[in-house]
Design brief:
single chain; 355 residues; mainly alpha; 3-stranded antiparallel β-sheet; membrane; Protein brittle-1; transmembrane; repeat
Length: 355
């Protein structure tokens, strides 16, 4: 027994010394493998104070928070982004499938309900998740690269406390554009393969078969068909998306005097940012999907402008926004879930940097 109690001592033979809350404040030696906090309530004085001493001695807290220590901030961001992308895309995979069919008219139906019924009749529930594995393989690294690039560029462009910004454009919009371009260039072939496997049902056995046949029959360059409109579309989309998210996040902190933004509010802010950016750039997304679908239904476009004009001529302005409803239903929660998972994962991985 020791009359001089330290806060926490690990003794020999894997035992822990815990305080006895009596007048002498001596310690009891307890074997750690068999330790249970509730077993010692009889040794301690009654009341919450006694249990708080035990909890503090063992480093316990009232709220359990799982954290994994990863020292490298770049690795933290990459892992967080990959998890955020995989989770968000899996949750909204059925809506993504319906949206793609509506955009290119592959089912011959014009409403979300009709497309849903057609998919269920032909493929069943698995048809709603067709191409989702490819989507995860594409989105996980894409989001990892995108969010890593965004955080890195924004950190370098954001002025330090007391300094004035050297650029007239918000740092978050520039960082968002760079992030979008970076991820698109790295993962675009997977996006095209996902679209082909989803839309051209029965043509390709799987993702590998689609890759081999496209390269052999149409050439490697076909893997990047539609890249130009995709890049043109991703720049304004990513710029507005991240600008809206960053602006709303800062406004929330200022108005409610909060140092951190909770998961629910992050979900709402991310969803609002996604709704704004997707609506503003949707026509370019439609043109990109038409070009990626290739010669499906006899439609072939050499560039984005031709695709846009052809859609306008055949379907009018409404054609440029075909699928906007299900697109927002899919993109809005996907954006919110992605941001929420990203911020939560950074906290889980012990993210101590200023967001």
């Amino acid at each position: 027994m020791s009359p001089n109690p330290p806060t926490l001592i690990t003794a020999r033979d894997s035992a822990t010394k815990l305080p006895l809350l009596n007048s002498s404040m001596k310690y009891a030696l307890i074997p750690e493998p068999t330790f249970q906090p509730t077993s010692f309530q009889g040794l301690l004085s009654s009341g919450d104070e006694a249990m708080e001493v035990v909890k503090e001695s063992l480093g316990m807290r009232k709220e359990f928070k799982l954290k994994l220590k990863i020292g490298n901030p770049s690795v933290r961001r990459l892992i967080s982004g990959a998890i955020a992308g995989a989770v968000s895309r899996t949750v909204v995979a059925p809506l993504e499938t319906i949206r793609t069919h509506l955009m290119v008219g592959s089912c011959g139906h014009n409403t979300t309900h009709e497309v849903f019924q057609s998919i269920m009749e032909v493929d069943g529930w698995k048809g709603l998740f067709r191409g989702n594995l490819v989507n995860i393989i594409r989105v996980a690294p894409s989001k990892a690269i995108e969010l890593f690039a965004y955080d890195t560029v924004k950190k370098h462009l954001t002025p330090k406390a007391g300094e004035q910004s050297k650029i007239p454009i918000p740092a978050s919009s520039i960082a968002g554009a760079v992030a979008g371009v970076s991820s698109t260039l790295c993962t675009y072939p997977l996006e095209l393969l996902k679209t082909r496997v989803t839309v051209q049902r029965g043509v390709y056995k799987n993702f590998v078969d689609a890759f081999v046949r496209i390269v052999r029959e149409e050439g490697p360059a076909e893997l990047y068909r539609g890249l130009t409109p995709s890049l043109i579309g991703v720049i304004p989309y990513a710029a507005t998306n991240y600008l809206a998210y960053d602006t709303l996040r800062k406004a929330y902190k200022k108005v409610f005097n909060k140092e951190e933004v909770g998961n629910v509010m992050t979900l709402l802010i991310g969803s609002a940012a996604g709704a704004f950016s997707s609506s503003a750039t949707f026509p370019l997304e439609v043109a990109r999907k038409h070009m990626q679908a290739g010669a499906l239904n006899g439609r072939q476009y050499s560039n984005m402008f031709q695709a846009l004009m052809s859609i306008l001529e055949k379907e009018g302005v409404a054609g440029l926004y075909r699928g906007l409803g299900p697109s927002c239903i899919k993109l809005v929660p996907a954006a919110g879930i992605s941001f929420m998972c990203y911020e939560a994962c950074k906290r889980l991985l012990v993210e101590n940097e200023e967001n």
